Amino acid sequence: MSKNIQASLIRYNGDIGPTILDVDDKTEGPDGTTKPLTKDMLQQMIVANFPELQNVKDAGALAELELIKQQQSEILQRLNQPIDTQLSGSNVDKLAKAGMESLIFQRSGEMESMVDETIVNIDGECVLESLTIGADTHTCRIMIHPKNAEGYSPDYLQIPHPNGSRLYSVQPIWLNRASGENDFFSLHKYDIESNEFIITMKRVATFANGVRIRIGNQSSDTRNISTNIMVSRKQVD
Question: Which residues are paired to 206 by β-bridges?
Answer without folding.
Answer: 127
